[in-house]
Amino acid sequence: MPICQPGDIVMLVARDRKQSKFIFKLEETRKLHTHVGAIAHDDMIGQKLGAQVNSHTGHPFDLLAPSIDDLIRDIKRNSQIIFPKDIGFILMKMAITPGKTVLECGTGSGGLTSVLALMVGPHGKVHTYDQRDDMQSLAKKNIERIGLQDRVTFTLRDIAEGFEQTDADAVFLDVPRPWEYTAQAHRALAGGGFFGCLVPTTNQVSNLITALERDHFSFIEVCEVLVRYYKPVAERLRPTDRMVAHTGFLIFARAISGLTAEPEPAEEAGDAPVL
Predict the structure, then answer these.
(1) How close are the terminal C-alpha atoms of the chain, in Å?
(2) How far apart are CA 114 and CA 144, in angstroms?
(3) In the prediction, which pLDDT does 262 show?
(4) What span, in angstroms and rounded, lies between the C-alpha atoms of 136 and 106?
(5) CA–CA separation, 118 vs 103, rounded Å?
(6) pLDDT digits (tens, 9 = 90+) for 59-106
(7) CA distance 253 to 209
(8) Looking at residue 36, what DSSP letter applies?
(9) Residues of the chain by 3-state class (helix, strand, coil), percent to 5
């Protein structure tokens, strides 16, 4: 069973009705202050994950490793992040696996960037583009917090000028007018590479489909992901009162060759086949 060490990212969950969560990096001599008392980091270092730890007031907490979902929901943000329910589907549809090279435009607060970096592993690479320095500054801090900065390169650039990389395995756009950049995405992708995008409205989807067809993408798919939670109370199991319904339309496609084969010259009447 894993033992907590200095530098580990851990999560404490209060044993109460609200199940308040606290995600942080373990550092010797530091303390976590909560609404039900303080807990010394030194009391958690050396503990096994799943152990109970108590605040100075005696309130119990469970010591756990945060999930990817927990990390994304906890990041500091100055823009709306892509929801975990959509990120999971994006990873599956775009085959984001260890060793892949992924391009992203629209760094935002770095939520998707963080998950892409986790999935490509130490031998993969994520190249993320944005035009706003304030966005990328915050995203860098969020990436560094979970120790994945070596897997990500940040570029301040308008991708109307094109991506710096070629032969990428996947390109994901999270920008207001993605149909303006489909040609640039195609040039950056390897043959058969994966394209993905998220937009909030149907007219944006229509514009994007037109651009994808024009710029030699095929196997176009449009969908949205809906998730409904239930109250985990055995005696009165029912859906929760609120539901995050529409967050955006997901569009996926594959880059194909825009070249067509030259037609064979027609045989003139009377020509005999050469044997």
Answers:
(1) 75
(2) 10
(3) 47
(4) 9
(5) 14
(6) 999 999 999 899 988 888 877 789 999 999 999 999 999 999 999 999
(7) 9
(8) T
(9) 30, 30, 45
- Give the distance from CA 90 to its chain's centroid: 8
Is the pLDDT at 120 greater than 90? The verdict is: yes
pLDDT band at 42 (very low <50, low <70, confident <90, very high): very high
In the prediction, which pLDDT does 2 show?
84
Closest CA to 117 of 137, 89, 145: 145
- What residues have CB less than 8 Å from 5, skipping those under 6 apart? 26, 45
Domains, the chain, ranges and CATH? 9-66 (3.10.330.20), 69-255 (3.40.50.150)
- Phi and psi at residue 110, in whole multiples of 5°? 90, 15
Which of 71-85, 200-214, 239-253 has the largest mean confidence? 200-214
Write a three-state SS string for 97-121: CCCCEEEEECCCCCHHHHHHHHHHC
- Is the alpha carbon torsion for 84, 185, 148, 111 positive or negative? negative
> What are 120's two structure tokens?
């490509």
Distance from C-alpha of 139 to C-alpha of 149, rounded to nearest angstrom? 10
The pair of three-digit structure tokens given for residue 220, joined into one six-digit string = 């176009």
Instruction: Provide the token pair at 105.
Output: 């435009």
Q: Please check the confidence at residue 271 and state whether its pLDDT lies above 60.
A: no
pLDDT in tens, 185-194: 999 999 999 9
For CA atoms 235, 236, 242, 246, the dihedral sign is positive
Q: Kindly report the length of the chain.
A: 275
